[in-house]
Design brief:
By secondary structure, the chain is mainly beta. The protein has one helix and 22 strands. The strands form four sheets. The chain has a twelve-stranded antiparallel β-barrel with strand order 5-6-7-9-10-11-12-14-16-19-20-21.
Length: about 350
C-alpha cells in the first residue's frame, strides 16, 4: 500500500511554472500559465539540456534565456566504499514558446552545456558544447472563456502534445568510464520522443497546475540507450499586483522523476535507473513585457543508480521577453489562460 501511495503522490507532481502577467489594451492584467516542465534525465542528467521546460512567458508567446545549475555527487567506482566525487552540470538555454492559431502551441529549446567533475585524486574533467535541442507541439483541448464569466468562476485548461529531442549534443563513450554516473555527457546521441499532458485551474490571482510527461528513448550509434523517463509535478501560486505594470508571483510545489534502467548492446546496465522526489520554491517578477524568474529544487527522497548517485540541489534563473502577436480580429492580443480584474492584496 505504501508503494501505491508514493506512486500516486508522484503521479500528481512535477513542478510546472506559473505564467506571466501584462497589461492588455483594455488595462486588464492577463495571466498566462504555461504548464509544461520536463525535468532532466537525472540518471542521464544534463544530456537533454539539464532541464527542459517551457515554464513561463508573457502571454503564450515569449523568447528568453535560462541558466540551470545542477549539483550531484557520485561514486568514483563500482564498490560501496568507492570515494564520492562532485559533479556540476550547467546549462544555458535559449527557449521560446509561440502560439499557432487559437489552439496550437509550439515550444523549443536549444541548450549549451558546460559540465565539470572533480575526482578523488583532485583531478578534474570538463566538457562543454551544444546539447540536445527539443521541439514540442501542443493542442489545447479545453480553453478558458472569453467573457465576464472568467472574472467570477474558476477557469480550466487542458493541453496534450508531443515532440522530439534531437541529438545535436555529442555522446562520448569514454565519459562512461570512472564514475558510475553515465550522464556526464553533452547529449544522448539518440532521437528521443516526448508525450505530455498539462492541466491547470485558475481563479482570479490564484492558480494550480498539474502535469505529466513521458520520454521514450532510443539507442544511439554507440549501442547505448538511456532509460525511458516519466516526470510529473504539482505547483501552486498567487500573483500580487503593484500598479499596472508590476507583479510578483511566489510559487511552491513538488516534483518527481522516475527512470528505467539504461541498456548497452541490448543488455541492462547495472546500477542505473531509479527515482527522486523534490520540493520546489521560487518566484517570478513581471515588469511590462519582461519576466524574471528564480527557482530552486531540493531532494526529499531519492534512490538513483542504486544509491550511487545523489542529487544535491538544482537552481535556475531566467529572463523572458514577450513577443507581441496579433489575432485575426484586429489589434487585440491572443486570448490568455486567465484574465481578471485586480484584487487588493
Amino acid at each position: 500500500m505504501k508503494n501505491y501511495i508514493i506512486s500516486f503522490v508522484l503521479l500528481t507532481s512535477i513542478f510546472s511554472l506559473k505564467g506571466n502577467t501584462l497589461l492588455n489594451d483594455s488595462g486588464t492584467f492577463i495571466n498566462s500559465e504555461t504548464l509544461l516542465y520536463c525535468d532532466c534525465d537525472t540518471c542521464g542528467c544534463g544530456v537533454n539540456g539539464g532541464s527542459m521546460g517551457f515554464g513561463t512567458g508573457l502571454n503564450n508567446n515569449f523568447i528568453g534565456l535560462r541558466y540551470i545549475a545542477q549539483r550531484y555527487r557520485s561514486r568514483d567506482g563500482i564498490f560501496d566504499n568507492s570515494p564520492w566525487i562532485n559533479e556540476n552540470f550547467n546549462t544555458m538555454q535559449l527557449w521560446t514558446q509561440l502560439p499557432i492559431g487559437q489552439r496550437f502551441m509550439v515550444d523549443a529549446i536549444i541548450p549549451y552545456q558546460f559540465h565539470s567533475r572533480e575526482f578523488s585524486d583532485n583531478t578534474e574533467q570538463y566538457i562543454n558544447g551544444l546539447g540536445d535541442a527539443t521541439v514540442l507541439g501542443f493542442y489545447q483541448i479545453l480553453k478558458q472563456t472569453t467573457d465576464i464569466i472568467r472574472f467570477t468562476k474558476p477557469q480550466h485548461i487542458l493541453q496534450l502534445g508531443g515532440g522530439l529531442k534531437i541529438p545535436t549534443g555529442k555522446f562520448k563513450e569514454e565519459n562512461l568510464e570512472g564514475s558510475v554516473n553515465p550522464s556526464f555527457q553533452l547529449g544522448t546521441g539518440s532521437w528521443d520522443y516526448l508525450f505530455a499532458g498539462n492541466y491547470g485551474v485558475t481563479h482570479r490571482n490564484w492558480g494550480l497546475s498539474l502535469m505529466a510527461n513521458y520520454t521514450l528513448k532510443s539507442k544511439n550509434d554507440k549501442e547505448y540507450r538511456f532509460g525511458n523517463q516519466f516526470n510529473y509535478a504539482l505547483n501552486t501560486y498567487k500573483t500580487y499586483y503593484f500598479g499596472t505594470n508590476f507583479a510578483l508571483t511566489p510559487q511552491v510545489g513538488v516534483g518527481g522523476e522516475l527512470f528505467e534502467k539504461n541498456e548497452e548492446y541490448g543488455l541492462v546496465v547495472n546500477d542505473t535507473g531509479g527515482n527522486v522526489f523534490f520540493g520546489k520554491a521560487g518566484f517570478e517578477i513581471n515588469y511590462k513585457t519582461l519576466a524574471l524568474g528564480v527557482s530552486t529544487m531540493l531532494p526529499i527522497v531519492q534512490n538513483l543508480n542504486g544509491g550511487r548517485v545523489e542529487v544535491k540541489n538544482r537552481f535556475s534563473v531566467y529572463l523572458n521577453i514577450n513577443i507581441p502577436l496579433k489575432s485575426n480580429k484586429g489589434n487585440q492580443q491572443l486570448p490568455q489562460f486567465s484574465q481578471f480584474p485586480k484584487e487588493k492584496n
